Amino acid sequence: EDQVTQSPEALRLQEGESSSLNCSYTVSGLRGLFWYRQDPGKGPEFLFTLYSAGEEKEKERLKATLTKKESFLHITAPKPEDSATYLCAVPVSGTYKYIFGTGTRLKVLA
Amino acid sequence: NAGVTQTPKFQVLKTGQSMTLQCAQDMNHNSMYWYRQDPGMGLRLIYYSASEGTTDKGEVPNGYNVSRLNKREFSLRLESAAPSQTSVYFCASSELGAGGAKNIQYFGAGTRLSVL
Question: Percent of chain B, pLDDT > 90?
Fold first, then answer.
């Protein structure tokens, strides 16, 4: 069964304390992976698409990486404004559907 | 550039009442989606529309109906609301019609629905 699991469920960091969020998946025929950011009371906002294992993408303090089994979202020297829920999603091969993880709630303390 | 606009933002219904959630996008996208988001669960697809005039059931369609009124608008109707439909509903749109890494979805701000 296609599945996406994110860990940890919640993460509290001090400002400047780097860490990583994990998204592991079991899907047949991976066709890429998405990372979204969701602020409280808002809809998910697109961050990255990773197309194949070994690919990396960066945006400001965020760096996303992809292997054949999982993706990591590395946050370097985070700031309070990075506090949000981070979601990953994978498309289901042969369909228009996407499986979303339950997200990691990140809180960065000043 | 508004992107994806959802109305209303909040709604409280009594069991058995009906209502329609509205969604409009101004990005000239072909595909539109309705999701629900519940605590501890990922976003789950309710219905999908690949293009004007076509709709397909997603993972959790029971109790809902949809209408793709035109390319811009995609509405979700609850005919007889139940407490189990208390959730946050998100509409999304994407340029492409098929699943895949190039098919980035853009989301609205959501409708928070409580059914008493």
Answer: 80
